[in-house]
Design brief:
Layout: E1 8-13, H1 17-28, H2 30-33, E2 39-44, H3 52-56, H4 63-66, H5 68-77, E3 81-84, H6 95-101, E4 104-107, E5 113-114, E6 127-129, H7 130-137, E7 153-157, H8 161-171, H9 184-191, E8 197-201, H10 213-217, E9 225-229, H11 238-246, H12 248-266, E10 273-278, E11 281-289, E12 292-303, E13 309-318, E14 322-325, E15 329-330, E16 339-340, E17 345-346, E18 348-349, E19 352-354, E20 360-366, H13 369-372, H14 380-394, H15 407-416, H16 424-439, H17 457-465
Helix pairs in contact: 1-5, 1-14, 11-12, 16-17
The chain binds NADP nicotinamide-adenine-dinucleotide phosphate.
The site of NADP nicotinamide-adenine-dinucleotide phosphate (NAP) has 28 residues, from helix 8 and strand 11.
């Protein structure tokens, strides 16, 4: 069938920001708006609810970022893009199933696992990946309901925004998180935490941090948590001076850090919890006893003048009972799609999926973190999606290949396979239910909460399907 006679059928795998932006940008493209191309887009997610990283990756006390959901919500509310939740690529549907019904498939599955850190002791009880902890506190349906929060002293490895997120959540008083949508089990878990000290370690210097200014400044907003810095870590080389002079973000953050350092020297620190920021230290070994974390051995580094570091051979041991590595996320391999195991991305050229010979696999595309790796703020994903969908539309002449391109038959097909999929109407039901749970509970000031998340997968499905 030719492009003139039927809509181009596009499947997007992953209903996080990357997938929704890609779907939205197709509908807003010149080709579609001018009527030259008609499209019919279905967006899939393995979870019963949409919004991916925003629902399950953004910290609950970041309502501004969570607010992106409002924009994504509006896109799916229009009704021209269908949502199928609780449908997993590689389990419920394989590539042949999708090719039968769609002309093009865009993978937007993100990067949800922790990058590995191959040091001694990493498998000890009490050593965790930040991504797993984030999934727990964000009420991810596939994670256990309890998290072992029994450490008084905690190490967080990494100097990116994820390290800041988890250090903030670990050090905050649970009652101060009740204004957010955290589920009951997360509140109870955090409430029981005996934590007094959270140590965040960066392997490079203060001028090489990967935090962003707003997120760094926010650390000082936590009630009853003092920030502790160490004068000896404030070592600057030529590359640091240049970064401070030429990069406004670095300059701003340096001002924040040095102000905190001065304030700390001048004032008294009386909070019951402390958040320490250490620089120029690399994790060397996690120390254990009886299979449990009892400390971390860090190697002190010095700057190499070019923005990098050299180990000094000098080691410092810190007593900690838990270690969280926040050293970056990593994308997982998908069945039947080329994968670069070093980078954790789908093999692609500007969003066109390629095979081992570098040839474009017709009809397959990638966008977001699974395309370019887990870097950049959520907004950067839009540019990425634009590049991918531009190529898809350029290729469209050769894309009309689906054998069963009728959109209506697809839900029958899912029914025939016994898949308990959720829909956009279902999300509205779950959304209303979570808001009602919020209205019925109270924060520490006695005010009703905006939302309380449903965590259990079956319960999410039942509510969404109105069962
Ligand atoms: P990231 O920004 O890439 O930071 C990773 C950190 O881990 C870096 O400090 C890196 O140090 C360090 N690291 C890597 N390997 C290490 C090792 N072997 N030993 C010690 N340290 C190591 O990654 P991220 O924090 O996962 O964040 C991912 C993206 O999401 C970023 O773009 C981030 O801004 C964004 N994000 C934004 C927010 C927000 O609130 N706006 C929240 C969360 C995430 P080097 O620099 O030396 O490599």
């Amino acid at each position: 069938m030719s492009e003139a006679t039927r809509p181009l059928r596009v499947a997007v795998i992953g209903a996080g920001p990357a997938g929704i932006y890609a779907a939205d940008l197709i509908t807003k493209s010149e080709e579609v708006r001018s009527g030259a191309v008609e499209v019919s887009i279905d967006i899939f997610d393995r979870y019963p609810a949409p919004f991916g990283l925003i629902r399950y990756g953004v910290a609950p006390d970041h309502p501004r970022i969570k607010g992106i959901i409002t924009a994504l919500h509006k896109v799916l509310d229009r009704g021209d893009i269908r949502f199928f939740g609780n449908v997993e690529y590689g389990k419920d549907l394989n590539l042949a199933d999708l090719r039968e019904h769609y002309d093009a498939i865009i993978f937007a599955t993100g990067a949800i696992h922790d990058a590995p850190l191959p040091i001694k002791g990493i498998d000890l009880d009490g050593s965790y990946g930040a991504a797993d902890f984030v999934s727990w506190y964000d009420g991810h349906p596939d994670y256990p309901r309890t998290w072992p929060l029994n450490a008084k002293e905690i190490a967080v490895l990494g100097n990116g925004n994820v390290a800041l997120d988890i250090a903030r959540v670990l050090s905050k008083h649970a009652d101060d998180l009740l204004v957010t949508e955290i589920p009951e089990n997360v509140y109870e878990g955090l409430k029981s935490s005996p934590v007094t000290d959270v140590h965040v370690f960066g392997r490079r210097g203060p001028a090489q941090i990967k935090f962003t200014p707003l997120e760094l400044r926010e650390l000082s907003h936590s009630r009853d948590v003092d920030i502790v810095l160490y004068e000896e870590d404030f070592e600057f080389d030529e590359a640091s001076d240049e970064a401070i002079q030429t990069n406004n973000q670095v300059k701003t953050m340096m001002k924040t850090l040095t102000t905190w350092l001065t304030d700390q020297e001048e004032g008294e620190q009386t909070a019951s919890r402390r958040l320490h920021l250490h620089f120029l230290q690399s994790p060397h070994e996690i120390l254990g006893e009886d299979g449990k974390v009892v400390g971390i051995r860090m190697e002190r580094n010095k700057l190499d003048g070019k923005g990098g570091i050299e180990g000094t051979g000098e080691f410092v041991d810190y007593p900690v009972q838990a270690v969280y590595r926040a050293i970056g996320y990593f994308g997982s391999e998908l069945p039947e799609v080329g994968y670069d195991a070093d980078k954790g991305v789908i093999t692609n050229v500007e969003g066109r999926v390629v095979d081992e010979n570098g040839e474009h696999v017709p009809g397959l595309y990638a966008t977001g973190w699974i395309k370019r790796g887990p870097v950049g703020l959520i907004g950067s994903t839009k540019g990425d999606a634009l590049e991918t969908i531009t190529h898809l539309l350029e290729d469209r002449e050769n894309l009309y290949t689906a054998a069963e391109p009728d959109a209506e038959t697809f839900s029958d097909y899912l029914d025939s396979k016994g898949i308990r999929y959720t829909t956009w109407e279902g999300w509205h039901r779950l959304d209303d239910h979570e808001k009602a749970l919020g209205a019925a509970s109270q924060d520490a000031k006695g005010e009703s909460r905006e939302r309380v998340k449903v965590v259990d997968r079956d319960e999410m499905i039942r509510i969404s399907r109105g069962e």
